[in-house]
Amino acid sequence: MKMMKKSAILLFAALFSLSALYGQVTTDDAGLRVPEDRIRTGNEGFASEEFRRGVQAYYKGAFNEAIVQFEKALAYLPDDNLILDWLGKAYYKAGLEGSALSYWNNASENGYGGLLLENKIEIVRERRVTGDSTDKLMRFSEAGAFPGEFQGNLIFSGPVSVQPNYDGTMWVAAYNTNELVLLNQNGKVINRIEGPLNGFDRPSDILRLHDGKLLVSENAGDRLALLDEKGHFERYIASKGRAKGQLVGPLYLAQDYLERIYVSDYGNRRIDVFDKDGEAIFFFGGPGGDFAGLKGPTGIAIADEQVFVADDQRQCIYEFDRAGNFIRELVEPGTFKKPESIKYKNGSLIVCDSNRVVSVDSESGALFEYVRTGNAPARVTAAGPDVNGNLIVTDFTANEVYVMSKVQELVGGLFVQIEQIDASKFPNVTVELRVENRHRQPVVGLQEENFYLTENMRPVSKLKMLGAASNNTDADITIIIDRSVNTALHGAEIESSVKEVAASMKGRGILRIVSAGAIPAVEYVGKPDALGDFSLAALKTKTTSSAACDLAIRLAANDLINAAKKRGIVLITAGSGNSLSFEKYNLAELSCYMNNNSIAFSVIQLDQGALGDELSYVADSTSGDIYYVFRPQGLGDLVKDMIELPQGIYQLSYTSAMSTNFGTNYLPLEAEVYLLNRSGRDETGYFAPLQ
Questions:
Q1: What's the pLDDT at 17?
Q2: CA atoms of 520 and 556, how far apart (whole Å)
Q3: How confident is the model over 333-363, as pLDDT tens digits?
């Protein structure tokens, strides 16, 4: 009897009480939306149940199942805008952006969603046309500023250099106050480091080394201070003097792919080179041949085999090789007023020069002005690209740190998506949001104060930020092994690659092995430690003349949907000689599926032949990189690089005040995100557990 009564209640609720789902609505005294016409058809009741199942499948990451459920619901109610919206969401997450846009357009043309849906359609359509990258030659504008003094209180003085971190925070070297200051994206001070007992002596630059430690140049101390990852002092490197391994007025720092450390030694008019342990190797920059020698070395940057050095006396940039041999003048003397820090980024040098920041092409020497601070007294000393695509600029004279963003990003705002809602412990609700810019670049480093959540436009209670994926230090990785005949000729290289990737995971995360044969198959799922003796002979999948790469990528991505928030696919294959096929899924769908679910894609190339056009497209359209198996530094950095890829995923919790109607009510949720002078918004909903 009790069971029959409960079933009757649920059926009645499904047919008559989904107030937010169908029909025109009004608001009662409690602020809940209720239907004006309480008489509902059977189709609406059936549609509501399919819709509820679709929402639950979506939040579990079962996007194909969600599509099926929403299609069933739409069959009962072909013109329902909310179903159209959710069907678009499911197709978007499944990588089928064309279908998603079609359903969103239908809902928008019906008057649903307003400017919010129109903006979403515009952003997704723009990404499909122009891709994810933005023009690197684009002017920057100030998105925010962090002053060294606020309401009469000194925060820092003399910011001279900045080191952005992959979690969105940034270290600022304060020359006048002899300290390192750690700021978050909102400009709040998280930590201060004053060095050892005797303190820093005019810190001029700060560099994060490949092993995660920090290196600080002390201009007046004539030395380098080595700190651990948290900023605790470990030891000094070098001392005052003119011999090898000694410094006089060190300024800026750089490190090459072999972990050698380069220091611009202003007092000695040279560049000093140390190994990763701090032992002096050699110095260069003196006169010789057609080169008159460095007069005032300041900024230094390294790009593969090239070393670029700015000279503030000759007002130009010189190019050397990594052995210190002079190559050429990249730009003519007198080009700059007072060049200081330089950083290498995507084929260009970011150069600070008095009151401006310019880009210099590392091949042609062509200049483009990124930003100019104006006519007020200024001395821009450092500009570092951060994880969010901004430039973090230090102005020594104005005593400020600027956040500079591309003008297009400031106008476009933020792209916010509510990814998951867990209401299993209702009224306690957990929400997962993804925040990006218009060009799919994740926005990292947000804090609780950057989020504003509402239910039916009313602020939620007990909002709390639980964490950010950018802070995670491990990743789940799936290795796809190309089983085509040509790639099989590199058996030893494949085995060593798998072992090296597994070892670099350091026992953390889950490692999967997928064979890309005629039919892909999962070969291994477990801890990476167990693959220390990996052998190709253990694979079940046989070699084939044509490996279904698209099916293998799709299979690998499916298993990563509900994996760790930092996750990636690593394809091991030969170059153009491979036999990878892409017949079932087109390349755009594969790329979108990985991008829309925060899955990085990297390639370990077993030979030096060019990758095929299809694979090159997928690699270029997704986050990740291409690694040659025999590169000098090995493959140990692959996992580290994947972990340090930006992830704009955040998890928050709150207590809901909504009425569930035995778990049948569709409960609305709105999320707004604010960062400096940018913002973004998303709206969605969920169901509480059935009672």
A1: 38
A2: 9
A3: 999 999 999 999 989 999 999 999 999 999 9
Other Cβ atoms within 10 Å of 198 Cβ, number: 9
Q: Are the C-beta atoms of residues 216 and 200 closer than 8 Å to each other?
A: yes
Candidate CATH numbers 2.40.70.10, 2.120.10.30, 3.40.50.300, 1.10.260.40; the one for domain 140-410: 2.120.10.30
Question: Do the strands 547-548 and 580-581 form a parallel or antiparallel pair, or are they unpaired?
Answer: parallel
How are beta strands 316-321 and 170-174 bridged, if at all?
unpaired
| Alpha carbon separation from 75 to 79, 112, 677 (Å, rounded) | 9, 19, 43
**Candidate CATH numbers 2.60.40, 1.10.20, 2.70.70, 2.30.30; the one for domain 414-471+648-686:** 2.60.40
What's the CA gap between 652 and 264, in Å, rounded?
Answer: 45
Residue 183: partners with Cβ closer than 8 Å, 6 or more residues away? 146, 169, 170, 172, 189, 190, 401
Distances (CA, A) of 112 to 82, 83, 104, 210, 572: 8, 11, 9, 50, 46
530 close to 439: Cβ distance less than 8 angstroms: no
For 396-440, write each residue's pLDDT tens digit.
999 999 999 888 777 778 999 999 999 999 999 999 999 999 888
Q: Determine contact, residues 207/226, Cβ cutoff 8 Å.
A: no
pLDDT in tens, 537-547: 999 999 999 89
Alpha carbon distance, N-terminus to C-terminus of the chain:
16
- Amino acid identity, position 416: V
Those residues whose C-beta lies under 8 Å from the C-beta of residue 636, and which sit 6 or more positions away, are 500, 503, 504
Contact call for residues 656 and 668 (beta carbons, < 8 A) = no
Spatial contact of 478 and 531, defined as CB atoms under 8 Å apart: no
**Rg, the chain, Cα only:** 28
Give the architecture (CATH level 2) of 476-643: 3-Layer(aba) Sandwich (3.40)
Sheet holding 250-255, edge to edge: 250-255, 261-265, 270-274, 280-284
DSSP 539: -
Is 201:220 a contact under the CB 8 Å cutoff? Answer: yes
pLDDT band of residue 150 (cuts 50, 70, 90) is confident
Percent of the chain with pLDDT over 70: 92
CB 250 within 8 A of CB 243: no
Structure tokens at 150: 């606020």
Q: Could you tell me the residue ranges of all domains in the chain? A: 2-130, 140-410, 414-471+648-686, 476-643
β 476-482/511-516 pair status: parallel
In 267-306, which positions are buried (b, 16+ CB within 10 angstroms) versus exposed (e)?
Answer: bbbbbbbbeeeeebeebbbeeeeebebbebbbbbbbbeeb
171 close to 182: Cβ distance less than 8 angstroms:
yes
Q: Which long-range contacts (CB under 8 A, 24 or more apart) does 18-25 make?
A: 18/44, 18/48, 18/664, 18/665, 18/666, 19/665, 19/666, 20/82, 20/665, 20/666, 20/667, 20/668, 20/685, 21/48, 21/51, 21/80, 21/82, 21/666, 22/47, 22/48, 22/77, 22/80
Topology, domain 2-130: 1.25.40
Work out the burial of residue 134: count CB atoms within 10 Å of its CB; fewer than 13 is exposed, 13-18 middle, 19 or more buried. Answer: middle
CB contact set of 271 (below 8 Å; sequence gap of 6+)? 262, 263, 264, 265, 283, 284, 285, 294, 297, 300, 307, 309, 320, 324
Confidence (pLDDT) at 37: 44
Q: In what order do the strands lie in the sheet with 223-227?
A: 203-208, 214-218, 223-227, 233-237
- DSSP-H helix ranges across 306-413: 407-412
Q: What is the mean pLDDT of residues 155-178?
A: 95
